[in-house]
Each structure stands twice: as C-alpha cells, then as structure tokens.
Specification:
With 241 residues, the protein is α+β, with helices and mostly antiparallel strands. It has a single domain, classed as 3-Layer(aba) Sandwich (Aminopeptidase), CATH 3.40.630.30. Helix content is 31%, strand content 29%. It is built from six helices and ten strands; from the N terminus they run E-E-E-E-H-H-E-E-E-H-E-H-E-E-H-H. It has an eight-stranded mixed β-sheet with strand order 3-4-5-6-7-8-10-9, with helices on both faces. Strands 1-2 form a two-stranded antiparallel ribbon. A hairpin with a 4-residue loop joins strand 6 and strand 7 (117-125).
C-alpha cells in the first residue's frame, strides 16, 4: 500500500474525494423476499410484538438489552411508544412476509451523517424470529439501506463482551472484530465491557454477495435447511477474488 505524506513528511490517510454528508436513514419501509422493515408503530405492531415476545418462557433474551422485558400489555405499550418516538436510535419492526406479523425489532443508531458511520443495535428477536431466514434478511436489509441507498462508509455492531450469542452473530454476518472497550457502559447496575465490530464500504460488496447467495431460495432444501452456510459463502468469495 502506498503511504501518502503531507508537506511535512508525515504519513496521512487516503484522500476521500468528493465526500459530502450522508442523508439520515428514513422511517420508510424496506422490503425484502422474506420480510420487510417498518418504522415501529405501537398501534400497528403492538399486539403482534407483545404476543411474539411472550412466547419466550422468561426474560433471558433481554439480559443484555438496556430494558427488561415488559411483562404486561400496559408496560409493553409504554415501551413501544418510547421506541416509536425516538429518531436515534431509529427503531424498525421486522415483519414476517408470509404471516404479515411483526416478530421483532432492530434499530439504526449513533447515526453520524458527517462521517458516514452508524450502528445497528437494540436487536430484539422473538422466538418466532430466531434462526430463520427472516432474521438474517432483516440484518441484510438494514446493511443494504446504510451502504447502497444512503452511502455510509462504516456500519457497526456493539455488544456486551459477555454476550456470546451476539458476538457469534456479528461474525456470522460478516463483521470484523475490532477490540474490547473496557468499562464502557453502566447498565442495569452493572459494568459492561463492550465488544466492537464493523463492516466498511470496501468490505460490503463481498458481504452483500454472500448474503444474497445465502438468501436465494435455491440455498434451502425442501425442509428449509440451508445447503451452504453464510460464512462459507463469504469465504468462497474471498478465495475467488
């Protein structure tokens, strides 16, 4: 790699020609093959989301979220109203196409139009959503919105360093681990060391191709089982590059 030097002989980063501030993500729908994303709306999504989350026998899926699972409909309505009123994080409901029901939420957050960076977070999957094509496609749709439609340069994933399922998901989706920020957050009366991951705009074409190959119906047998793993598809693209 060629190193650029300034007039003082100091190394400086690559030039970003023609850069301008990026648009903020809109609250409009994003549609895929298996699901669509809609801005959270308590009236439209409340009953479906409450029913989906209450299928879990307890609140362990919420351990690493900033909120505990609301146990009553009134508390859940207040929680969802808070999500709907927020612009950053910008919360989306994940709508399963075949049932037309909301089965989870996720958000774009820490939105930085000036530098082209944002984070996906507040990922709250119900039991109906976990380990499904809908779950994977919802993450792909949010990345596609950030990179292809809005032109962002950096897409982040952060989680409690003790949250092993979240850390595994980040790697499966194609994020690169960047390190641990120690004593980063206090939540629920406890410390959080935060694990940081990212995808850059240069990495996105390969990540996108792997997602699209994995989501193709031909990648699943008659029982809905995957033929090739997402990680394997991404690695094969790296080898052929």
């Amino acid at each position: 790699m060629n190193i650029r030097l300034n007039q003082y002989g100091q190394p400086i980063g690559p030039e970003i020609a023609g850069w301008s501030s990026r648009p903020r993500p809109p609250r409009s729908d994003v549609t895929g093959r298996y699901c669509r994303l809609e801005g959270v709306n308590p009236l439209r999504h409340g009953a479906d989301l409450y029913a989906a989350y209450m299928e879990a026998p307890d609140g362990r899926d919420w351990t690493y979220l900033f909120d505990e699972r609301p146990e009553g409909e009134e508390d859940f309505a207040s929680y969802l109203a808070k999500l709907a009123s927020s612009a950053d994080p910008l919360h989306f409901a994940i709508i399963e196409s075949h049932s037309n029901k909301a089965v989870g939420t996720a958000a774009l957050m820490r939105i930085d139009p000036a530098h082209g960076g944002l984070e996906v977070g507040w990922i709250t999957f119900s039991p109906r959503l976990k380990r499904t094509r809908v779950a994977t496609e919802s993450m792909y749709l949010m990345m596609r919105l950030a990179f292809d439609e809005l032109g962002y340069r950096r897409y982040e994933w952060k989680c409690d360093s003790l949250n092993a399922p979240s850390r595994a998901a980040a790697l499966r989706y194609g994020f690169t681990f960047e390190g641990i920020f120690r004593n980063a957050v206090i939540y629920k009366g406890r410390n959080r060391d935060t694990a940081w991951y990212s995808i850059t705009d240069h990495e996105w074409p390969r990540v996108r191709s792997a997602f699209e190959d994995w989501l193709d119906p031909s990648n699943f047998d008659e029982h809905g089982r995957q033929r090739r793993r997402l990680q394997d598809l991404r690695e094969s693209l790296s080898c052929s590059a």
